[in-house]
Amino acid sequence: MTTTTTTRALIVCGAGASSGFIAQRMRKAAQERGIDLQVDARSETELPQLVSTVDVVLVGPHLAYMLGDLQQQCDTVGIDAVLLPQEVYGQLDGERALDIALDHAIYEEDEA
CA-CA distance, 79 to 17, in Å (whole number)? Predict the structure, then answer.
């Protein structure tokens, strides 16, 4: 039996600019691997409105000081906030960012 689960990831940073490039590269990496991925890059200020719509939140390394607060917001819906390593973020490494997202994604149980 094969099941397809869409991984829904959100990358948060200050303004969403650099993280937008990582999101684009994550989409490309997922497509090459045949993985169903939805990923957006947004400002951390948008997390309260978006947290319930994703399976994992990736946090830009420059927001490390906010990780505790971001994780508290994620705890309200039972998902992880994961700090992206500086080398992944700085190199816009979509492959490694995808691996991190897949390792930490927490999926809702089907209620069918």
Answer: 24
